[in-house]
Design a protein that fits this description.
mainly alpha; 0% strand; 66 residues; elongated
Length: 66
């Protein structure tokens, strides 16, 4: 493995960790009863966009490695 592949791998894993952490916080906050329904709907949309973003980061990583 070259240093470029290792660097790209570490960067991708770090980005995925940050994204996953943000999604976990969104989920935890949206399940609390004190949140308004409009805020909950907005957070649900943000969660779906976040999942799509994480998938795109992973796909991009695979395409760069191949």
């Amino acid at each position: 493995m070259t240093s470029q592949v290792v660097g790209l791998t570490l960067q991708t894993v770090g980005t995925l960790f940050i994204g996953f952490s943000a999604l976990m916080v969104h989920h935890r906050v949206s399940t609390q009863a004190i949140i308004d329904t409009s805020v909950t709907k907005s957070m649900d949309i943000e969660r779906k966009i976040g999942i799509l973003g994480l998938a795109l980061i992973f796909i991009g990583y695979l395409l760069q490695i191949i």
